[in-house]
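User: quick one, fold this
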Amino acid sequence: MASSALSALLDERVLSGVIARARSATTLASFNDQGERCGWCSHPIRLIGAVASVDSTTGEILRTYSTNDEPDGVLLKACGTRRATRCPSCAATYASDARMLVRAGMSGGKGVPESVSQHPMVFATFTAPSFGAVHGTRSGDRTPCHPGASKQRCVHGKSLTCWQRHRKDESVLGEPLCPDCYDYQRSILWNATCPELWRRTTIYVRRELARQLGVDAKQFDRELRLSFAKVAEFQRRGVVHLHAVIRLDERDDECTAPRAGVTTSMLIAALHAAVQKVSAPLPRGFSDDSLGLARWGQQLDLRVIAAHEQDSTRTSDRGSDETSAARSSRAVANYVAKYATKSTDDAGALDRRLTSLDDLSARGVSAHLYRLVETAWNLGVLAHLPRLRAWAHSLGFGGHWLTKSRRYSVTFSFLRSQRQAWQVQRRQGIANASAPAIALGVWKWVGTGWRTAGDEWIAALRQIARLHSRLEARDARRSEAETFTDIEHQWTSEFSRISMTSLATMSPNIAKGEMSNDRREGSDEGE
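Assistant:
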């Protein structure tokens, strides 16, 4: 990484930009201050304008600000992306907010009562069905990919066996054994139907719970509430699966625990029953024939979320009697935050929407991804699928990556406002920050990204320094508190590696290996 930074500095444009920025100590200090305020974002938004803070009681102008006083006459605002492949700094902020949002709904905080940790609550993973045999890992690295007789072949003459024991970082993972046998059309339409399938799943879960309690669905909705937070993750084969924290509450404004008799085991049973029954119609494809129904895959993983670090039984549709430590709220929050910052593909080539298939060809994706995106693009010409072209870069999935029910916990807006208020208080003092004031201003966008290659180089170095500072602070907290769980450690290592790679290359397109956290993810890829 040091050699990469040195070679970048030797570039004439970078060197001249750094010298020009360092020519004035005052200007450099102001530039550093702006960079710190935007988190040394990889693609900051440049704004011009002015704002006045006015006392809402007296009308007195308390403070004024103008970009005329800033270096280059602009204000730098962080891009705010969630994708680590585009901006590690903003993705780290998004991941921190996502972690806090999810954890508050499990253990309290930020206005959520701590008593929620005692509610019936599980961490669920919903997978997609199979659309064709793909390369994958089986039970770690011990079992061959697709064992079988070597003479087994499909109708296209391709072998249906693979005796390789793939590593988790191999590029072949998720690639179909026979691309002509793989059902690309159904895969894309399943992704497009996934948000509706999830909506119906929450309805079916409530119905199953009502049945267990001996009441009708309307009475259940009057008395109890199903709260959740979920994140979507793309598997290597190009289909989404969902990770969700699901909680039962009393239906009131205080987020109290449900009445006696409503247990976690009831919630688990309701989820199993709902997943077996729920379905949603797939849209018609190229042939205009009905393609049947969208359903969840055979693998449903449910884990009890532990208020404390006690042991709990892991339940699975496969009937496994395997036991493992219950997921702690911290581990689950980090697990969700990790996936909230991932992209459709490993390298971030599909971070942006397409303008044409020629645009796709220039992005250098794998043959399997290319065919998935091409299928989504072509399906978009159908009158009843007008939005598929807009979502071709996400393989037909048009849902939000991280969503929650209204009463699960706080919102991203709340967390951003809290952080902004803290920053204002730190800069201006408690007395000024507490004055009742309104802001009146006018802003205009003038560009995106750093103005010179030298500024971009400085920002990349400062991002690396911020990353090291975060890791050192995390290590210090780790030495004072209990040992982090394996999931949290994996998330930290993976996100840090992604960030360092992105900054070293100074490019939005980085290569990062997919990480499997447990046996479940590896086996999903082999369906």
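User: anything notable?
Assistant: The radius of gyration is 25 Å.
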